[in-house]
Amino acid sequence: MKTKTLNKNKVNVITLGCSKNLVDSEDLITQIKGNDIAVTHESEEDDANIVIVNTCGFIDLAKEESVNTILQYADVKKAGGIEKLYVTGCLSQRYKDDLEVAIPEVDAYFGTMEMPSLLAKLEADYKHELVGERVLSGPIHYAYLKISEGCNRTCSFCAIPLMRGKHVSKTIEALVKEAENLARMGVKEIMLIAQELTYYGLDIYKKRELPRLLDALCEVEGIEWIRLHYAYPSKFPLDIFDAMARQPKICNYLDIPLQHADDTMLERMRRQITQKEQRELIKIAKEKVPGIHIRTTFLVGHPGETEEEFQSLCDFVSDMKFDRVGVFQYSHEEDTSAHDMEDDVDSETKAERANRIMEIQNSISLDNNETLVGQTLKVLFDRKEGEFFIGRTEFDSPEVDNEVLVSAKDQYVRIGDFANVLIESAEDYDLYGRVVS
Ligand code: SF4
């Protein structure tokens, strides 16, 4: 591979992991750009002389992907394709010492809170005036808004607090400013994310303030949809539902990761809630916000999960008929409390249990989708793929939920625009239709 002799630095940022990491990369790119340094995100061109890999350390698979990506760029560096390689993000926060030994080709490793030190390596300053500004790396009609960092909960299986620390909320003023900047850039939909959305405000305002934040964000001109992700179910502040009911901009959509439904398992997982309380919460949600669509995620194969306990989860999924469901397989993460237990559910059983949940959900989702045939739904179009324009309703988040497909052969829609679509047919997770206005 050729050796570059570039006079000016150009940085390529690679992002792995979740939407929260993507927001961190966008903040980093904004800072680099604000220092007049050329920067790209996941560029295919090989014209950058510096690469920053923003890693994920969530579960085994994610760690493996991050390590492989670092190794790939370490090889590029050894071959002279880049001059500097830096690594940041969750994996680096968690395993910095090990990584320094294992992959010494990396010039420096940084934790999740060390952006100023990373910028210093690039001879750039951390510019406080840029906080709240964001260069978007993906489509410009939607963006994630990270309202807090970290988590104070102690779920048995979760390594996130080890990597992201205690809960720190951003102020309402800072978030409104960030949303205004996003709206000026063309963003129409913001997705509120946090490790634990419902805790918002307890640290800085001494009370849960998500409803007040939502009311303030609804005032931002240009933002048409506000979507809520990752609401912890225990001690759920019910006034969130009142805000959802009174504010038309808040999507009738709530992502509540329940993780399990068997009481013994919920206790083992330290979820501070029972199945009865979970059922009651969902019932209240449906009463207070008619038409609300609930997304949830479950974790299967946690230490100690018996077939009987898993079956109780299956019964719950069948009975509750959630609108959207995701399933994760347990990963044995050191320094979590579950790590002290034996990882006694083998990987085949974990995979089989995950499939069983999704099989139940497939038919629920198909039944739900079939009821939509003949209805006209407001759709926000995200992209064109092959012969279809692909969009989402307010009940669907990008990348994880259902999609609406419109044939691009005989109709045209602009990406980033809303349109009303008459639904003509349905599959498990896709709806097909045509634009009517
Ligand atoms: S609430 Fe979520 S982020 Fe916090 S410890 Fe539990 S699973 Fe992890």
Task: Provide a descriptive summary of the structure in words.
With 437 residues, the protein is an alpha/beta fold. The protein folds into three domains: 10-129, Methylthiotransferase, N-terminal domain (Rossmann fold), CATH 3.40.50.12160; 132-370, pyruvate-formate lyase- activating enzyme, CATH 3.80.30; 376-435, OB fold (Dihydrolipoamide Acetyltransferase, E2P), CATH 2.40.50. It has twelve helices and 18 strands. It has a six-stranded parallel beta sheet. It is globular. Residues 1-7 have low confidence and may be disordered. Iron/sulfur cluster (SF4) binds at residues 151, 153, 155, 158, 160-161, 195-196, 232.
Summarize this, please?
By secondary structure, the chain is an alpha/beta fold. Helices cover 34% and strands 22% of the residues. Strand 17 and strand 18 (430-435) form a beta hairpin.
